[in-house]
């Protein structure tokens, strides 16, 4: 039996706690019951809070804890799971300095430490993710990158694993995290049975299809902001770097340097994202032929744009419309 410690704190997302508990507690159990076999539980779980008191979740539910995370009498956990922060992230970080310190100390404990969604902020705050690969909810990735520049953040990924640290992406990615951890500790067959019993699509690898364009405007460079406004209006036209330099009043070299510093992207990559987002919107909301939508953003080579679209969303345009079209 492997021991899993789930960390509770006020403002956590309840489903990211109760859901992951269900997955671990029913690994080796539900599938056996379905087939009339004797259950073989593989994990024991414990919900731990700072003082052993209740965890008051963001949805108003109060969850009773099994103990406190600093208690010396607790058996060493094989897995420590930090759930989603549902309350304002800055407030939760400020209110849980002792938890941050405790997490930092667990780096040498031998436990695998995992986070779901915005729970990665607590791992990063503890310094556990410095120089490592991580993911978090795509909608908070800019905030994450700004706060933790030493972390290699990949918001397009659903799961990242770097040594004894694992991160899952947005919202309900605890499903995927749970199945991954079950496979790692209890084997592939137990994980497959669990995914089938819970009707989980265990083949997902990316959260990119769910993300909106991450508008790179969290900066104070007025020249770049003005150029972004211009690109928003003219993205469907053929645009060369020389034209962008003329619009910005900068040399091409200075433009590349400042645009990259302000947004994290080159002007060309930003332009591609604008076009992808325009196509994404029309695939979701209209029934226009796909080639017409792609032509409208300035691409005549449909296959070339389809490759670009897949790169940023994880899906071909037709597959994207099938999944998200209204």
TrEMBL record:
Pfam families: DJ-1_PfpI, HTH_18. The keyword Ribonucleoprotein does not apply. Gene3D superfamilies: 3.40.50.880, Homeodomain-like (1.10.10.60). InterPro entries: Class_I_gatase-like, DJ-1/PfpI, Homeodomain-like_sf, HTH_AraC, HTH_AraC-typ_CS, INH-QAR, Tscrpt_reg_AraC-type_HTH. Keywords: DNA-binding, Transcription, Transcription regulation. The keyword Ribosomal protein does not apply. Residues 225-323 form the HTH araC/xylS-type domain. It comes from the Bacteria. SUPFAM superfamilies: Class I glutamine amidotransferase-like, Homeodomain-like. PANTHER family: ARAC-FAMILY TRANSCRIPTIONAL REGULATOR (PTHR43130), TRANSCRIPTIONAL REGULATORY PROTEIN (PTHR43130:SF11). This is Helix-turn-helix domain-containing protein.
């Amino acid at each position: 039996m492997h021991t899993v410690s789930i960390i509770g704190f006020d403002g956590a997302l309840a489903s990211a706690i109760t859901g992951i508990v269900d997955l671990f507690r029913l690994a080796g159990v539900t599938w056996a019951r379905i087939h009339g076999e004797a259950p073989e539980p593989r994990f024991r779980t414990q919900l731990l809070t700072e003082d052993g008191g209740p965890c008051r979740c963001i949805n108003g539910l109060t969850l009773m804890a099994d103990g406190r995370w600093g208690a010396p009498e607790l058996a060493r956990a094989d897995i420590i799971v930090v759930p989603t922060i549902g309350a304002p992230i800055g407030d939760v970080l400020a209110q849980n300095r002792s938890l941050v310190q405790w997490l930092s100390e667990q780096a040498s404990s031998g436990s695998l430490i995992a986070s779901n969604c915005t729970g990665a902020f607590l791992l990063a705050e503890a310094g556990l993710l410095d120089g490592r690969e991580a993911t978090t909810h795509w909608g908070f990735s800019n905030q994450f990158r700004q706060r933790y520049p030493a972390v290699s953040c990949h918001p397009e990924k659903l799961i990242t694993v770097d040594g004894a640290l694992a991160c899952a992406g947005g919202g309900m990615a605890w499903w995927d995290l749970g199945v991954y951890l079950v496979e790692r500790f209890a084997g592939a067959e137990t994980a497959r049975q669990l995914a089938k019993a819970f009707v989980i699509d265990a083949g997902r690898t990316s959260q990119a299809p769910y993300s909106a364009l991450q508008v790179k405007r969290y900066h104070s460079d007025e020249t770049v902001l003005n150029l972004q406004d211009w690109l928003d209006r003219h993205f469907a036209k053929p645009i060369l770097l020389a034209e962008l330099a003329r619009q910005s009043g900068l040399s091409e070299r200075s433009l590349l340097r400042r645009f990259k510093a302000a947004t994290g992207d080159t002007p060309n990559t930003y332009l591609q994202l604008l076009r992808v987002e325009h196509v994404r919107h029309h695939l979701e909301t209209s029934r226009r032929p796909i080639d017409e939508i792609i032509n409208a953003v300035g691409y005549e080579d449909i296959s070339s744009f389809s490759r670009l679209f897949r790169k940023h969303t994880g899906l071909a345009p037709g597959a994207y419309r099938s999944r998200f079209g209204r």
